[in-house]
Design a protein that fits this description.
By secondary structure, the protein is α+β, with helices and mostly antiparallel strands. The chain is built from 29 helices and 22 strands. A hairpin with a 3-residue loop joins strand 18 (about 525-530) and strand 19. Helix 23 (about 580-590) crosses helix 24 and helix 26 (about 635-645) crosses helix 27 (about 650-655). It starts with 11 loop residues before the first helix and ends with a helix. The model has no long low-confidence stretch (mean pLDDT about 80). Bound molecules: zinc ion. Zinc ion binds near residues 347, 350 and 367. Zinc ion binds near residues 345, 348, 350 and 367.
Length: about 700
């Protein structure tokens, strides 16, 4: 400060306005530890006084202590400063060096431009700059660039060191629960047996059920909890036990650390904001695909599973996804459709979806992705029950040699799983007992006179005892080990049954999910194509071998209701010399059935004639036809009597007298009369009036 001389750049109009002193240190740690730097920055007030500003016009802006200058966002002090400069209230901005004001070029240039507009000086330890002067502007610009570059190099050096450590697997970050750092910084198994067992159980259950959700369900059904070891903070390394969520199980299954691999760069976070913009809460974090992991060291530390098993699990989890766009088959679900997830369209190759017909008892396979995505037509759809049965038959045929092995393995699995659960419970109870005992010992050890502490410890002891009691209660709720293990007698029985896998397959106790799971072990996919009368089923086995089947096509509802062509032909043959009522009676006599499986009626025959354009002789047209006419246009005696408004006996007399054109197929058989409009006009009797009805009214 002693070297300072009053600069000619400072004019009275500058001194009439404020001198703003900007004080900032990047991190709270610097604020706490590097007090010398802060003192130097506050000294700038003295400097402003020396330069001629009166004390009341010197303003120190220090809201931004502990904030990085990488961006103006979140720096209220800097924004206040820019506002003051913009309003023309500041004569000069003082800062220890340019980097204190801004480490981002965009913030810096904006400030310099506003300073130039409002004729504000920029003053640092080395000198006084007037942004309206070209050479000063150039220099200030250069200072800003250097300041940003400095930050960049700093970052590069830090990041470079970090990546170098990661390359060698020495960069330490939080190990997943179940693994811990030992005293030398190596990753080892968690010393807590219960934690190890719980993590191991997740992998074992997944191995058996191949579904993360099934693992969650299993934990929930058995009242088991999953541990999380806290990291950092006051409760560092504490264990929290809670029932695992689906996400928690997925996180465990996706974490390569459990397979003994050191991986750095599993996720990538990209900032969502431009420099200088208000940053969002978090950048967007994306999972990096395993093949793109930048640093992967298999066999870095002991693991719960092998690397092969890890990769298998990833493939399995990938297939379990249900998004229809990709090639995922989805985990086996409880629905009836046996081929859910493995069925493909034989026409276009897309995966087919399942829909349920009627009351949900009949599955139907549909290729509707074109329909649902592009509003196109559904490619093909077909009833699934016959197809399922055919595939199941083929599957059971293929399974025959392996039956015994499968059943033995299943028993071993049931037993192993039951024992694992039992062990997990033992460990849980042991821990609760230990914690209660520990709390008791702490309470006993404290000086009884120290009431404050004693009270707290007593409460803790009580809590632990209550926790232990709850655990024991939960433990009694779980299914007994003996119930979960299969006793030898039952084992023999089931084994005998297993000799005939088809019985087990069809047993009502066998779950549909189990059937699908079994199926997926052997079958990769099934391709369906609908032909005229059959459905071609192509089974691709896991071995890439193919089996082709043909299943007769189930008739569609409208096909089932459609009238038999034979019936139509018969109606056509009968139509010219019979009325509709007669045709219905004849068809019934001949044992024919209508499309809806019922007897024929006049209306049904009329419909068939109308539908198949079989000529009716009725002059009233099909809508008003009462069925008294034959196809050749002749009508019955009754119909003639109705039309001419006379008795039937009069009609018979007229026929005999030749006044009406009639034919008789057999003597004494029914007469068929041709009524022309002229005949009707000549012979029709006027309608008699109904006196009685009028009087009654
Ligand atoms: Zn298709």
């Amino acid at each position: 400060m002693t070297t300072l001389t009053i600069s000619p750049k400072i004019r009275p109009d500058h001194l009439d306005r404020l001198a703003l002193i900007y004080v900032r240190q990047s991190t709270p740690l610097q604020v706490r530890e590097h007090t010398g730097s802060a003192a130097r920055q506050y000294d700038l007030a003295g400097r402003a006084r020396d330069l001629g500003w009166p004390t009341e016009r010197i303003q120190v802006i220090d809201q931004d202590q502990g904030r990085s200058g990488a961006s103006s966002a979140g720096r209220d002090g800097f924004q206040h400063l820019v506002a003051q400069v913009g309003l023309g209230r500041a004569g000069a901005v003082l800062s220890l060096e340019a980097s204190r004001l801004a480490r981002s070029c965009s913030d810096w240039y904006r400030l310099i431009e506003i300073c130039a507009l409002t004729n504000t000086l920029v003053i640092d330890e080395d000198g006084v700059y007037d942004p309206t002067v070209y050479s000063d502007r150039l220099l200030l610009g250069f200072l800003g660039t250097m300041s940003e570059a400095e930050l960049h190099w700093l970052r590069c050096r830090l990041l470079g060191g970090k990546l170098e450590k990661a390359r060698e697997g020495r960069l330490r970050f939080r190990p997943p629960t179940g693994l811990v750092h030992d005293a030398e910084g190596r990753i080892v198994f968690d010393p807590d047996e219960q934690v190890r067992h719980a993590v191991g159980l997740v992998f074992d259950l997944f191995e058996q059920s191949t579904s993360a959700l099934a693992v969650v369900r299993h934990f929930a059904a058995n009242h088991l909890s999953c541990p999380t070891r806290l990291w950092g903070g006051a409760r560092h390394a504490h264990l929290v036990w809670e029932p695992p969520s689906h996400n928690r199980v997925l996180a465990i299954l996706h974490n390569p650390a459990y397979a003994g691999a050191y991986v750095y760069g599993r996720t990538k976070t990209r900032s969502q904001s431009l420099p200088g913009e208000e940053p969002r809460i978090k950048g967007r974090t994306r999972r990096v695909r395993p093949e793109d992991w930048p640093f992967l060291i298999p066999g870095h530390h002991p693991g719960y599973i092998t690397w092969d098993q890890f990769q298998r699990n990833q493939r399995r989890l990938d297939e379990n996804r249900t998004s229809p766009a990709e090639d995922h088959r989805g985990a086996p679900r409880e629905g009836l459709a046996l081929l859910q997830g493995i069925v493909r369209c034989g026409r276009c190759g897309r995966p087919m979806t399942v829909r349920f017909l009627k009351d949900g008892s009949i599955p139907s396979y549909e290729c509707n992705s074109v329909h649902s995505r592009y509003a196109g037509a559904t490619c093909q759809s077909m009833r699934g029950d016959e197809i399922d049965a055919a595939v199941a038959r083929a599957f059971l045929e293929a399974m025959r040699p392996a039956q015994l092995e499968v059943s033995m393995a299943a028993f071993d699995r049931i037993a192993a799983r039951a024992r694992q659960l039992e062990r997990q419970w033992e460990l849980t109870l042991e821990r609760a007992g230990y914690e209660a005992e520990l709390a008791r010992r702490r309470f006993v050890a404290v000086d009884p006179e120290n009431r404050l502490v004693a009270r707290t410890l007593e409460r803790e002891w009580n809590d632990r005892l209550a926790e232990l009691e709850r655990m024991e209660r939960d433990a009694t709720l779980r299914p007994r080990l003996a119930n979960r293990l299969v006793d030898p007698e039952e084992r023999r029985r089931v084994l005998a049954l297993a000799q005939d896998l088809s019985k087990v397959w069809h047993a009502p106790t066998t779950l549909q999910t189990d059937r699908k799971q079994l199926l997926s072990y052997l079958i990769k996919d099934v391709t369906l194509s609908r032909e005229d009368t059959t459905i071609r089923v192509a089974i691709r086995w896991q071995t890439e071998a193919c089996t082709a089947l043909e299943v007769p096509r189930a008739r569609r509802v409208y096909e089932m209701r459609r009238t038999d062509p034979m019936v139509v032909a018969r109606v056509r043959a009968l139509a010219s010399e019979h009325t509709d009522r007669q045709i219905a009676a004849l068809l019934d006599q001949e044992g024919l059935r209508s499309g809806t499986e019922g007897r024929f009626t006049t209306e049904k025959v009329q419909w068939i004639r109308y539908k198949h354009s079989i000529k009716s002789g009725c002059p009233d047209g099909p809508a008003a036809c009462r069925g008294g006419y034959r196809g050749d246009g002749r009508c019955s005696v009754q119909e003639a009597a109705r039309q001419l408004n006379v008795n039937i006996s009069t009609i018979a007399a007229w026929c005999r007298a030749g006044r009406l054109d009639s034919i008789q197929a057999v003597p004494h058989g029914p007469r068929w009369i041709r009524l022309t409009p002229e005949v009707i006009a000549e012979l029709r009797r006027p309608v008699r009036r109904h006196w009685s009805r009028r009087c009654g009214a």
